[in-house]
Amino acid sequence: MSMVKALMAMNTSVIAPNINFETPNPNIDQRVKVLTEPTPLTGDLVAVTSFSLSGTVAHVLLKRHPVVATKTKEDPKKNNARPYPRLVLVSSRTEKGIASIIQKLETMPYNNDFCSLVNQVFKEPINGLFYSGYTLLPTPTKAVHGSLLTQPIKRPVWFVYAGMGSQWPGMARELMWFAPFRQAIFECDRVYRPLGLDIVKIITSDDPTTFDDILNSFVAIVTCHIGLTEILRAVGIEPDGYLGHSLGENGVAYADGCFDIREACLGGYARGYASKVYKLEKPGLMVSVGLNYKDLTDLPPSVDIACHNSDDNTTISGAQEDVEPYLEILKAKNIFYRVVNSSFIAYHSRQVKPLAPKVLELFQQAVQNPKKRSAKWISSSIPEEEWNSPLAQYSSAEYHVNNFLHTVRFTEACAYIPENAIVIEVAPHGLMQALLRRTTKDGCVNIPLCRRQTESPANFLLAALGQLHMNGLRPNIEALYEPDSFPVPRGTPCLSPCIFWNHEDDWDSGIAPNIQNNEVTEVDLLNKEYRALFSHQVNGVVIPPLSLFLVDVYEKLCAQHHKNGLDETFVCEEYKMKSLVEVTSTGCHAQIVYNGNLMVYLDTILKIKVFLELSEDGVPVFPSMLREFIMSTNQISNLNPGCHAQIVYNGNLMVYLDTILKIKVFLELSEDGVPVFPSMLREFIMSTNQISNLNPGETVDVYLDYDTGEVFAPGVYMSRLVTSCFHYETEQQEEAKINSMNFVPHFTSLQKNIGTKKFLYCLIQLMIDNFSVKKRDAHITMVSVNSCFPADIVKHIQNKLSAVAQVEVVHSQSAAVACDLMLCSYESLSESLQLNANFVLVSASPGDVIDQAYNIVAHYQFKEEGLLLIKNKTKPLKYSVIRPQTTPQWTKCLKTKDTPLLVWESPNIDVQSTVKQINAMGHPVVCIFLLDLKAPKFSLNESFYQQQLSKQLKVNIFKNGEWGSYYYENVSPVPEMKYPIVMPEFFGSAKYLGLNLKDNTHNISNEDRKQELGHIEFSGMIEGGGRIMGLAQYDSDNCTIHPDPELTWHVPQEWNLQDAVTVPFVYTTVSETKYP
């Protein structure tokens, strides 16, 4: 809060007053003034100091920004060199949130720095924000904005380059405002200027006769291809594939890296120059016809098919005298056609063959060293069956002359654009949009960058980039604007208006809101309906089963919707229970209680979504794969491995469901006797109509599939049923525990079977440190192969991994399953042809010959068994070595292209604190701690370190001549101290001591006794029966504490000595701070 107050003061130049202050303490230095009125801040420096109860002191000196943001609504067209608006990208959880953000941005005064902040925040995807949108600021005469539900998938990006016909007067005048485009055009101008062409004038002139010159058309389109490609590169949009239509393949060659700017420009010039200079014997004509090329069976032999545009559109080309009579035939058949303006040149036909030698000559002069086409480039000028030919391999002069002469197979090329692709048309006009809509697959989004005669081509281009953002791409829009400096000036608006919560969903349950919050379900244990709960006890406490909740919610839904339960299907999704609910009895009457408070089922069942389904004919709706089984109870033979159990139906729905759940519970009971309960259920489907057909006393078959976690029974289906150990409160007080930090080598051989669980825990912690999980709701998939590990060990590993992620356990018979962690025997591992797990924990026997080809991280071998940890080999990392001991500001070196490799070479490094500090930074780094002075001097060329780094562990510790890890070990309970602690007789006797941060009295050796513990807390008795507490100095030589009379107090009557011993240190710190 002090930091917030300081920042507010620097931003407003006013120091906020303090409340509830009247008279200063005379013991405080009077130079320290407590403000009670708003006070101007005159300087630019503010210091903030923080004191911690543990003794940690933090101090920071803040300096406010010298620049103050302007508050007027500036128009960038008037005050800046940039004449085009600012594109601002936003995201929100709901469509309503997007609309609110855009409205807020469009109505507030324009602030350039604020726009930069917003773009910085939303340039990367944020989990949970499902809608993306954009707006242009300051708002143009006609507002330009949009929003869309962003698909949670990575969509492929394809560039499509259009050819002739996309040119129009003044098409690039506003595009020249964008620096990447402008710089590319100036490069093109250096190529064309010696050839007598002013390319800037050609593409920016409004003269309608500009493109009467066919050469101008070719060079203008090519130049725009280059400029628009540079804009896309500048904002970071990289394609997964590209294709071109006719001249468009010249632009593809530039995008693919086969052409540089000079080669691309001269490629367009070659086509245009040959078309302009060399006159053909007969004028040609190109016509777009509304038929598939296969349907043009009556096409005259002298007319060629120039382009396969789509399934219902074809371009024909030939001599004008041959094409025009055929147009009369099409007109008579009422078939659509449109003449294409090609300056009376029949491109892609035999009519332009006389031009080919000159085009080839000019191309060969331009492209002297052809480059190989990449796999991203889908050819539209060579048939697919000839893609392996020498002609198709390179972007050569011959390739482009072939394009100039032969049919354009655009339809066939578009077939390679995958579903859900984002197709960007790169051309001065979206000429191909109608064709793309008819040729691309379902889910594809077609976005043109430009449009002919639009009111503002610059705004249209910015809106197109905004649409890319809406569809899941993340363009770096700031690359199109002058760079902004951070931090932003004082007075820049806050980002909080861009955050909107989603209040549209009810996350508690599907129960209607008319169920009051004070409604509870009373359970009468003498009622026959609930009498079965007496058998559902743990240590004498009644724990209501999951079936009770499911039945209760089901009955409430039926009553609320006035439904007959027998006609309904009950579906429950994503059930999660985080703690147990107890039934506490007062006499024979009870209520469901959670943590001592009456709760509604609406709150007790966490994250539950319930709804009813019924088909039109009244038949309950089940997934198709389950309908036959649930309706008929036929046995399923392919449920293997699994469990087949038989239960007896007694007519009670709650007991029936609970008995089905008990099958899973019994199978996962641990040997230590800790009870397990259903904690997670992905899907539960119940048809009471089917259950009602069962007769009391009837034997019912229940099937459990280990691989899928599915449970099948008549009228019941469950998926992903997970059990967990819950800790319920008891009256017993837990004994104190102390964590001990130990170093354990990764390769250890012991002669006795001791410490197996200790080393297993070490391996688990090693895996946790190297799992790539950043959030608590991450998932880890653990596969147990052929039950090679006992069930209690599997459960133990699952519980430990649950500290960092949600763990899903899958049972399998194959070691080839893809997962995060696999548990298997060495035999199963050897039989597997491929390793698809991130980590593999192997149970090995002494006689097993370990294949060194595996990436073995750790190996603990005991007398009769062994544990082997294997990490899947991945692509070798490229490291950037950083030595923090000799690099003062090493934390600023972590943002490198290569993986940072931090190396410490000293036995005095605090490994735990250092690793904690690095993890808090959030950078992916690899650490090496050389705590052994005899370790070889570190070098990436040293094989000793190459071998260790090949294991790709995040933390590598070398100590006592071995690689290993530190791990925490619980020492419980704390043993009695070997040396009694006494006080001087005049003080009385000490009864309790507080645990000291340096306390190691549970294992005092002669050397350790000399360690100074500092002040420790105590409580005890004095003569006459009085009770005291306080701080004392510990004498390690005599095991005596010496209380400080000034820091000793009487214990209040309502406290016990155990509570009192926890107070002195905190009380002293607060007291000394307030009354120094």
TrEMBL record:
Q: In its keyword annotation, does this UniProt entry include Lipid biosynthesis?
A: yes
What GO molecular functions are on record for this protein?
fatty acid synthase activity; oxidoreductase activity
Query: Quick one: a GO biological-process term for this protein?
Result: fatty acid biosynthetic process
Which keywords label this protein? Answer: Fatty acid biosynthesis, Fatty acid metabolism, Lipid biosynthesis, Lipid metabolism, Multifunctional enzyme, NADP, Oxidoreductase, Phosphopantetheine
Q: Identify one Pfam family in the record.
A: FAS_pseudo-KR
- In this chain the Malonyl-CoA:ACP transacylase (MAT) domain maps to 160-454
Cell inner membrane as a keyword? no
PANTHER family the UniProt entry points to: FATTY ACID SYNTHASE
Q: What is this protein called?
A: Fatty acid synthase
